[in-house]
Amino acid sequence: MPQNDLASGYQLVTLLSAFVASVVASVYIILYYVVGIQHATCFGGSFGLFGDLSIATKPFIEYQLQRDVAYLFGMERMMYQEQTVYQLIEVYAHRYFGHVLVIDGSLQICERDEANYHEMTVHVPMAYVPNAEKVLVIGGGDGGALLRLLQHPSVKHAHLVDIDMFVMRDMVASYFPYLHTAYMDSRTRAFAYDGRQWVDEQLEVEANKGSYEVVVLDSTDYGAAESLFTEAFYQQLKKLMAKDSILVANVDSPSWSLETVTAVQLQLSRLFKYVHIFQSHQPTFLSGHYSYAFCSDNIHPMKTHIDWDAWASKNIKTYYYNPDVHFASFILPESIRSVFSQASQLKDIPLSSSPFTQKQFTQDPPAEALFAVQQKLDEDEDEDESQARDDV
Known about the structure:
Largest sheet: 7 strands, mixed
Distance between the termini: 94 Å
Structural class: alpha/beta
Number of strands: 13
Mean pLDDT: 83
Oligomer: single chain
Shape: globular
Order of helices and strands: HEEEEEEHEHEHHEHEHEHEEHHHH
Number of helices: 12
Strand order of the largest sheet: 9-8-7-10-11-13-12
Low-confidence stretches: 37-56, 361-371
């Protein structure tokens, strides 16, 4: 082929490539910025350009500016969307994760692993106060923390305060009905209130002071609800708490946002004697590693005795939490533990709190005990065989 023909062919291919690229870019811009479908082609979904856009495959992208990282979920469809006075609430359907709740662009819970988060925020503090009767959730309009608190039969009064309570309650009734059962419990009282304002008003009644034994602060990302993260708010909230009570607050990823977690611990340490960070595996949260602050004046997360027989007697079925996970959650990686002013250590656990020294665990011994038993049986069997050979 002549050299000129090759050059002409190359130019033609280049022009065609540039044309195709410009068309693709134009379509992408239209879909992304005008229609609102983000990366739908990656999942082979129907764009739904001539019908209801909610039926299209519409991935949800959560982006963390601080670490320049994005998580992308290939959603089946958007099930619900409402812009309230306070926030944008969305629910998506996902093949694996089930219904997914997103608030202001941040994934809050999904059916697949919400139990990880909610069981840790509730069962950890309740293990120390097994007979708690009056409990409080601030935030948590999805009902997940409330539901777990109500699993404890000692609870007689469970109060929930969420600024968008009515909208959240109706939303979970449709898309997270098992969580909505918490709202229907006769022990529940739910308030559509700003948390700070509600706390201030409760303190006007003398009987409310020192009455809550477990308090769960279940907000959106730390700092999003600004009035709930001030020292003045924590000081007021503490006045509602009983002498031997615990506050658990959700914080952030200790792997990706250690500065935030450290600042929270420092802030709360000015108000409570014991402030220990504990963790959970939360696959759908950015980094998959999440943390909480355990706050109390009289209860140390490792040194205070836990009655695991009392826990077992409640017969609470869990997905994530158990006594081993309870203690393990307070043991942090060295790179994280070393920056905190207070950190838990296994050596601080009293023998009386060890799960394997209490009655309900004697029927389910740890692996080391099983290994020792098997080793003894093997030794006895070898001894019998040796004796049989000697007899012959």
